Amino acid sequence: MLGWKKRRNQLLREFETHIEIEIQENINNGMSPEEARHAAKKKFGNVGLTVEKSREVWGGLWLERLLQDIRYAVRSLSGVPAYTATLVCTLVLGLGCVTTMLAVIQSTLMQPVALPHSEQLVQVYTENSPDGTYASPQALSYKEIDELRRGNRSFTGVGGYNTMVRPVTASDGTRIAVLTEVTSDYFQMLGVQARLGRLILPADTKSPVVVVSHEFWSERLHADPRAIGSTIKVSGELRTVIGVLPLSIHVPQGTGGPIVYVPVSLDASGDDDYKLESASTIARLKPGVSMQQALADAQSIFAHSEPGNAAQDRHLGLRSYRDLVVGDMQKPLLTLLGGVGVLLLIACANAANLQIGRAASRMPEMTVRSALGASFGRLLQQLVTESILISLFSAALGSALSYAAVEVIRHAYGNQFPRFDELSIRPIVLAGTAVLAVLVGVVASIAPALNIRRKTTSRFNTKNATRKTRLPGILVALQVALTCVLLVISGLFVRTLQQLQNVKLGFDPRGVTTLVLMPENQNQDQQLSREIEARLLRRFEALPGIQSVTMQTEIPFSNYNMVLDGRTDVSGRTYQKGDSALYSLVSTSFVHTSGIRLLKGRSFLTEDDTSGSLVVLVNEAFLQKYLDGRQPLGTTLKFHRDPGDTDTDLPFTQPMTVVGVVENEIQGGDLGAPYQPMIYVDSMQIPKNSPIGLIFNMTAQYAVRSSLGPAALSSELRAALKDEAPTMIEMSLRPMQDGISQSLGQRQLALRLVAGFGIVALALSAVGIYGVLAYSVALRRREIGIRMSLGSSRLKVAGLVMRQAGAMVLLGLIPGIAGAWAAGHAVRSFLYGVSALDAATLVYVGVVLVLVSAAAAFFPALRAAQIDPVEILRAE
């Protein structure tokens, strides 16, 4: 290697030549050949030592010794395949999980968004509460966006967008697609270039043009390069395709999928084509301008805007574009990274214990090397080299498994979570894993090295006596404590899911199928939409096998709910700021179809549609908040009118009479959300000129209760839809119970991941307990033999081992419970109906740990009980 061997041999030959010359001179001086050789060798001294000292002068000795240690480590590890395989599996689990989570974190939270200088992009939003205690992203009006664009000194560009779903007709038919309307400078502000054609420009504001994502171009336009210039229908309006975005551009959602982009076109009242007067706002900072400076600049602009501008009363906020895309994913991901960090600590402790046992079996070798002059540093280098070598090998295998895991996650969740379609293992992740592997190798070798140092320098004869060491037991206790933390968190998630599954829904989802439709042309006459939806309702009700059908604008667990949050006056009660309720439009058979329980009064009747008066139902939450202790039936409700409000500012002016009270039902898709006051209005009673009529042009939702199977029912409904209303496009058709299951999706994913970590940790702890006890029994064979020869029974010997295991578990459980309490508080925002320190969960985890520990200790205890005292005494 590097000529060292050649130079060493050359130096040896030179020594031999000089010795031969000296021998010849001694013979010439009268010595016998034997005396001459002895005198010559005595004169030149220890040739080997001299050569080694010369070798140190040449330099690079550390590298040569390192290579020697590596070769020796490979030979040594190959001689103990069971130990090597166990250690490798332990580290592969720990390092593989860490590599996978590092890849997810790096891809979603650290990797810059695939836009030019994305670090300069920020979202400008308003906060709900003036005191800033609760902030949520909210849109700015188009007028405010224009003021910000014209008056700022901190941004190079300001753009707005709104995202919705609309029917899009291409050559393959009409389907629902994601539609994003953008201001004319949106793409220019982002710095995006078209893959084909061009992007939206200021001159396109009034033009019927559209830009499509790469996925839309591939799936709906068949990746036809001649698609530029072709036409597609968006919400019934013909638009010309002028450009295709690159594959890597997924703005603003951060997830892939077919998307069409249309320019914002405002009318005289400031509303766009979709009757929206505001948009989410993104801006690009000028180089060198901080977010604080930009925020102060924006606040100054709105503070000096024209009197009466609502922006003057708003609190603005800025956040990075990456935070906008990732949303609330950051905290769960970092929590999971903490979980795999705990798992790696367990694996490291297990590796240290395995190496302590291995070092004990190598004590004769180490003693001989120490006696021959090897320093502790040299022995330490050998141990650390072996530990790092096996750790790096495990990291390589773990990284290979991580590639597969990341691929699975990307395909499974790429379209569900932001930036998950960008998941990959980049070189920086592999470098981080390599550094971690080296650290794990060094840390895991410290304990066995100290053990060897103590034994090689001790005058105690380990052959004839058993010397106790507490370090392996402490490491096992650490494993038990960390495993307890992971298992308790898993248990808390299981209890949370159980609590959510037991939440009172307030309706009966069994046998109910939801159907969501959208008119192909959003600009069709509102009255026509209303008639179509009523006709469909009657047709569905007449289908065989249908028990009842209702229209409802707010169906639990639907993704397309539209609820009006209206300020409400209640007769007999003085209006107070914040008196509002959610309004849901339903049809006559709402109570019967949903299975909601009627607590007081009556349901809607067919006669109500022609009675001339407007009757409503309220839920329990409304009763408790506004009518507590009062007779609710007959109470009159009205939309609250502020001074200066006109009739056109209200949804409608007619009073509403409460005729019934129904049970609270889940609102939206969050099982753990509190109930809000709700008012159910029969949609057929809504005045024809009410602005609420716009809802009929947006979506139509039906809940169908039927005894038919899902396939038969879907076929019946689609056939009726094709006959009765071919211009209504299906958005969703699924059993309601599927929606309930999907609402638990994120929590179930977290549960699977944490439970997986807990199971791996439990397995590693079991291996650790087994290894320590097996090592202990091997060391105490002589002691156990003498005990048995003095009358100790095999049962007592086995009990001795089991008590040792129990002590380690008990020592780990106490700090483990404290750690679980702290970890429970860290994840309390993910819990529902269970406290961070749940006694039942702690008991279950304690029982599981004791049982698994007992199983791991059983075989070492059995081995101890089978020791033959006669054989031990004979060996003495």
What does this structure look like?
The chain has 876 residues and is of the alpha+beta class. Helices cover 50% and strands 16% of the residues. The strands form 3 sheets. A 6-stranded mixed beta barrel has the order 3-4-9-6-8-7. α1 (4-28) packs antiparallel against α3, α5 packs antiparallel against α11 and α5 (81-110) packs across α13. The longest helix is centred in the middle third of the chain and has 38 residues, at 376-413.
Q: How much helix, percentage-wise, in residues?
A: 40-55%
The main pleated sheet reads as:
6 strands, mixed, barrel
How much β-strand is present in the residues? 15-25%
Within the largest sheet, what's the order of strands?
3-4-9-6-8-7
Give the number of helices. Answer: 25
Quick check: average pLDDT? 84
Q: Could you tell me the number of beta strands?
A: 22
Give the N-terminus to C-terminus distance in angstroms: 48 Å
**Contiguous runs where pLDDT drops below 50 for at least 5 residues:** 129-136, 460-466
Given helix and strand content, the structural type is alpha+beta
Choose one word for the global shape.
elongated
Q: Which value, in Å, is the CA radius of gyration? A: 38 Å
